[in-house]
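[agent] plan:
  1. take the single chain provided in the ticket
  2. run structure prediction with default settings
  3. attach structure tokens to the ticket
  4. add a short note for the reviewer (M.T.)
[agent] executing step 1
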Amino acid sequence: MSAEIEIQVECYAGYRADQYPQRFTLGQRVIEVEAVIDQWRGVDYRYFKLRGDDDAIYILRHDEKGGRWELTMFNVGGRDDTRLSST
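[agent] step 2 finished; step 3 output follows
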């Protein structure tokens, strides 16, 4: 069983579409992205480790073929960038 939560994401579109997330909607909450801490690629996916305006750390996954975004993990609390390390 998958633990991912589908979300709505608004992205900055630079030289290519959906370059990186600027804000996302989780239920009725809109979360502004304060910082992209890290990003990496998986098979058919792009991952983004973000700090939201609520000081939580989020990992979002973008299914590039399907165009879907999912919340894969989050951590509420402080500004400790070492949490949810992508390595």
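[agent] step 4 note for reviewer: DSSP finds no helices and six strands in the chain.
[agent] ticket updated
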